[in-house]
Design brief:
Layout: H1 5-8, H2 11-23, H3 30-36, E1 44-51, H4 68-82, E2 86-90, H5 94-103, E3 107-110, E4 117-120, E5 124-133, E6 147-155, E7 167-174, H6 180-197, E8 205-210, H7 218-225, E9 232-233, H8 234-241, E10 247-248, H9 266-280, E11 294-299, E12 306-315, E13 333-341
Helix pairs in contact: 4-5, 6-7
Length: 342
């Protein structure tokens, strides 16, 4: 029997819709998952990375749903609710940074505004801080060259945490969204600087950021999986530990371009995220299970008596964010680390 191709065409969108429905994950409430977790506030520290999306200063009349005035309160609410000890932010302009500092009363900040590190000032203090370029041979300031911010912190004597003699290094980065060659240079600089600033691993390290790469592309493989890599990925470690030791939600995408939770659907991953990663990198993403641009990497100190193990690793999204998320075009990522003495 000869099949009329025109009769088949209407079945294509129906088939895609059914596949999208069958293979789309149910969005769990991050808030509910977080609050269900038993934790010891004295020995577990929350770390967040959050690309807050730059404000469009060229369009001062813009007061739409994606403008900074429309989004900022949700940014403040997320940080105030989860109360991370450290927040690595990306893309915040000076205006946005000032708004955050005026509203987030528990926090101070260090670093270049587009890669600022926020920290809870009642719990930790800055020992030293700085910035570095993510390209070699830079001798003067350039708006077009990316940089990373870093800080070495120590717990205050009256901190609620039990490790007042411990120092740790935080590096926050935002790597190139368009150039794979620049990303490769950036991660090599990040690794070298992490070793230098930590005195070859004398103190623990947290590396937060928007890496603009898939976790199986070169940037992640170099920092985590290669012979030279010194970092662990909190998301992967949490998954390996399993729900008995580490809670995790099923959100495969951290970047959503203001599509909200819809971007986690099977169809969106195939039509939007997969081509996006092919543009961003030279390697094909090996699966549809994790399209995270935003990572929290860490290294427990080689020489100190403290080890870190994630007890929670989540992409922060709520069921009401299925159709939109007005905080940013990225979901924030949060990991809680249990500190162990060895």
């Amino acid at each position: 029997m000869k099949v009329n191709k025109l009769n088949i065409l209407p079945l294509i969108p129906i088939t895609l819709f059914l596949l999208n429905t069958l293979y789309s994950p149910e969005i769990q409430s991050t808030r509910a998952l977080y609050e269900s977790k038993e934790r010891d506030d004295r020995t577990e520290i929350p770390i967040m990375t959050f690309n807050v999306r730059w404000a469009d200063l060229n369009n001062k009349e813009d007061n739409g749903p994606y403008s900074w005035p429309a989004r900022r309160q949700k940014v403040f609410d997320i940080i105030n609710h989860y109360k991370p000890l450290i927040v690595g932010t990306q893309e915040a302009l000076i205006l946005q940074h000032n708004d955050m500092m005026n509203s987030l009363k528990d926090y101070s900040s260090i670093g270049f505004c587009k890669v600022t590190i926020l920290y809870r000032k009642s719990e930790v203090e800055v020992v030293s801080q700085g910035e570095f370029w993510l390209e070699e041979g830079v001798t003067q300031y350039s708006e077009n060259i990316r940089r990373a911010s870093w800080g070495i912190f120590k717990f205050k004597k009256d901190s609620i945490f039990s490790f007042t003699d411990m120092q740790f290094l935080v590096i926050n980065t935002h790597n190139s969204p368009r150039s794979e060659s620049k990303r490769r240079i950036s991660v090599k600089i990040l690794l070298n600087k992490a070793l230098e600033l930590s005195n070859n691993g004398t103190i623990p390290i947290f590396l937060t950021g928007d890496f603009n790469a898939n976790p199986k592309q070169f940037s992640h493989q170099f920092l985590v999986e290669s012979e030279d890599g010194i970092f662990s990925d909190s998301w992967n470690v949490c998954k390996d530990l399993g729900p008995a030791k580490c809670l995790q939600n099923n959100v495969p995408c951290s970047y959503h371009h203001f599509l909200g939770g819809q971007v986690n659907s099977w169809l969106a991953r195939f039509v939007i995220q997969y081509p996006l990663f092919l543009v961003h990198g030279q390697e094909y993403p090996p699966s549809f299970s994790r399209f995270h641009l935003d990572w929290i990497l860490y290294q427990s100190s080689i020489k100190s008596r403290y080890l870190f193990e994630p007890s929670l690793s989540v992409v922060i999204v709520e069921p009401e964010d299925i159709n939109e998320n007005t905080a940013s075009d990225h979901f924030p990522v949060l990991s809680v680390f249990k500190i162990k003495s060895v």
